[in-house]
Amino acid sequence: xxxxxxxxxxxxxxxxxxxxxxxxxGGVLVRSAYSLISTGTELxxxxxxxxxxxxxxxxxxxxxAKVMQSVATNGVPATYxxxxxxLDSYTPxxxxxxxxxxxxxxxxxxxxxGDLVACAGNEHALxxxxxxxxxxxxxxxxxxxxxxHAAFGTVGSIAMQGVRxxxxxxxxxxxxxxxxxxxxxxxxxxTAAGVRVLGADPDPARCELAExxxxxxxxxxxxxxxxxxxxELTDGHGVDQVYLAAGGGSNQPVELAARLCRDRGRVVDxxxxxxxxxxxxxxxxxxxxxxxxxxxxxxxxxxxxxEGRDYPIGxxxxxxxxxxxxxxxxxxxxxxxxxxxxxxxxxxxxxVETYQRLKDGExxxxxALFRYPEQAQDTEDAAAPTVAVPxxxxxxxxxxxxxxxxxxxFVGAGNYATSMLLPHLAQRDGVELSTxxxxxxxxxxxxxxxxxxxxxxxDLDAVLGDKSVDAVFVVTRHSSHAELTRKAxxxxxxxxxxxxxxxxEDELAGVLAAVEESGNDRLQVGFNRRFAxxxxxxxxxxxxxxxxxxxxxxxxxxxxxxxxxxxxxxxEGSRFAGEGGHFIxxxxxxxxxxxxxxxxxxxxGNEDLQVVLRYPDGxxxxxxxxxxxxxxxxxxTLDLVADGKVLRLDDFVRASVYGRKKWVSSRLPKAxxxxxxxxxxxxxxxxxTGGPMPVPLESLxxxxxxxxxxxxxxxxxxxxxxxxxx
Length: 726
Description:
This protein is α/β, with parallel strands linked by helices. The chain has four domains: about 1-150 and about 305-370, Medium-chain alcohol dehydrogenases, catalytic domain (Quinone Oxidoreductase, Chain A, domain 1); about 155-290, NAD(P)-binding Rossmann-like Domain (Rossmann fold, 3-Layer(aba) Sandwich); about 405-525, Rossmann fold (3-Layer(aba) Sandwich), CATH 3.40.50.720; about 530-720, Dihydrodipicolinate Reductase, domain 2.
């Protein structure tokens, strides 16, 4: 299928051939009929992409701050690779469309194939021929409403949420500053609510259009006529509410709002304009400044948008989905007229040219739409690939040597895979990147372009059934690791799975059952720190020990950003379940044993954890996993004490050993090396030669079981014994 994409580094726009997205449970696969081009939000993104690197930095100071924090934590080279990797990737465009349901995922019962729906979301309502859309981001289109009009659903929801934040009352007077697409919709919604509306915009054509759509009067923000109109409609008191629907870097809208608003009036920010509030003006009138967040309640909440968990209507009357449905109803019954807002309709194949004309100002439009080909493909072509375990008549014996090059397939191509694994594999001699599999079509296409995969697909079954593939990398979200690993083992593949191997005891048992059934134990989990060159050298310098050891591992994990999928504990497990295996594996490797018990305790009110591991010889390891520390402090510090010696590791930058002689590493001139490259080299060698896997299966299982025991220990409030059982 085709999709509009942009390279944020170069500014290149393209209509790209990408794999068809799969139809996952909890959503529907939609074939686009019309998608709306936001001449505000999208063109701002397109313009930013054309800037120099300095210009991009100036336009996004929030992202610059994140980069600087990453430099402090991970070093310049690693941060540079990560940033350049993100910049030099194709990103999608679009967030508002109407289309026909082609396939219904499990758990969906409110629509069926052939129904017309309006869709929302900058990850799900893209300028693409097909999109997978979760339940709370689509709404059925009322009978009789044209699909090109229903394509306004998302931007209509944005305008509606802004109006709701203003809490308009019958008979009030409102001023809308900025009469672009959102402003024109706000004018109509306010008029439908019984509010008298004034508009401000320097474009006379937009002012005239707003007056035709219901505004009492509109004018240039700098004109005296606008102030006169406000005075006449409000008896000199000023408007009851102001809606900021303008963009750009001028502070004029904020200053105009203060000047024309009445005492204790309301100012609602809907657009993205400069907000240097003139303190005296806002203080003297005690103005109520409010913000409108996108489509409404539920926006940016993964449990609502991705998992389909609705908010009870008695507590949250208007969610983003209910806003979407309400707006469609208003358009269907004629309360809102979007037809005058359509300035241009372009064929989808002409997308790049249309964007360029809009950017250059050759095409002046309040709204432009993409029109997609009317002929639909066979449903079978658009169906999601199956993930059934392929039947293998003859299983190869584990440990067999392979030919050169070693052919690898990747399942998943997210940030970690593209920044920490694939850069080490793409240029490695004797390795061929065969196939990348994702459920999101564009990520597969990006990985194929950047790292040279021979194929990109959404068909996992085909990859597992491909006998030429020697090893499969599972680099997906945590909840899918165990099942994908199980299937790959049963298919006879050598498997590299990122941590965690499993999130529950049942999942771990399922992986081991697959090993037993297939006779295939060729498995590696991405516990990379034991392979870090600095830690390897420090362990060598520490030497053998005779008595029990005491190990302390401080992990300054920090807080996650709002909306991170790591916060979805109901499906993806706790943060420690996802990451803790790294630290348990490192401790067990340094102590050369597997733990026999786990005790975990957490302070009330935060996510900090103290985990104490006990080992057969009496050694202990204490892992302090904290989220409340200072962001500028190193992430990982480790101390190992035994036999009158101390090993110290400072965040993979420096290490030292104190004993009869003191050894101190030189400060590394490059980025922190946490062992990924060496780990991958060991894994590829094992695949190629048929030799032992880098980490014994028993150790992988023990580390996973200990990680799972942490949650059990927190729930029970007592140490958890790790019993060795088949």
